[in-house]
Amino acid sequence: MTPSPEPKAAPTGPPSVSLRRKLTVLVAAFAGLALLGWIDFFTGYELGFFVFYSLPVGLTAWHAGRWPALLTAFGASLSWWLADRFNGVNPSNRFYFYWNLTIHFLAFVINAVTIAKIKSELNERHALDAELRHVKLLLQRRADATCPVCQKASPRQDSTVP
After folding, report:
1. What is the C-alpha separation between 52 and 58, in angstroms, rounded?
2. Model pTM greater than 0.85?
3. Where are the domains of the chain?
4. Composition of the chain by helix, strand, coil, percent to 5
5. 91 — phi, psi (to 5°)?
6. Cα–Cα nearest to 105, from 68, 56, 72, 65
């Protein structure tokens, strides 16, 4: 009996995100931030939109990665600041302005880094799973080729191997 041909190598490593996709996600995120800033401006500074500014940051982190998300976090802070600035918000002390700006920015950064890390770990897990399935298939084929009697005696019990 001739051994079955070796299957192609399993893909290794997480899929990379193309530059075009990163730019598309960034443009969409900044368009969303501009819209949010406009809505924030027209609703006034008394209604907080903090959670909504986090949405473009999170989506950018998931679809484009950490660095584009950090850029979006900066854009979200800037958009929030511009909405408040044009609404005439004038804190009694400059410290409060810088404090709020820093807290907003840090919250966006935490969101960006955390979501990008979760996505990266998920991609790595998918790659490891694909590699494990590949090695399992190789071992099964080698075992089948080595012991044809064993192959006929017991049917495969794992239906996940293609």
Report:
1. 10
2. no
3. 19-130
4. 75, 0, 25
5. -60, 150
6. 72
Q: Using one digit for the tens of pLDDT, what is the confidence trace for 51-64?
A: 999 999 999 999 99
**Cα 16–Cα 51–Cα 43 angle in degrees, nearest 5:** 130
In tens, the pLDDT along 83-126 reads 988 988 888 898 998 999 999 999 999 999 999 999 999 999 99
Instruction: Report yes or no: 29 and 74 within 8 Å, Cβ to Cβ.
Output: no
State the angle between helix axes of 66-86 and 50-64 in degrees (0 to 180), rounded to the nearest 10.
Answer: 160
Q: Give one word for 161, left, alpha or beta, with left for phi > 0 and alpha for psi -120 to 50.
A: beta
Q: At what angle do helices 66-86 and 94-146 cross, to 10 degrees?
A: 160
Residues 78, 126: Cα–Cα separation, whole Å: 36
8, exposed or middle or buried, with CB in 10 Å at 0-12, 13-18, 19+? Answer: exposed
Q: Report the C-alpha gap between 11 and 135 in whole angstroms.
A: 12
Q: Report the C-alpha gap between 108 and 114 in whole angstroms.
A: 10
Instruction: Give the whole-angstrom CA distance, residue 72 versus residue 158.
Output: 45
Instruction: Give the DSSP per-residue string, 37-57.
Output: HHHHHHH-TTS--HHHHHHHH
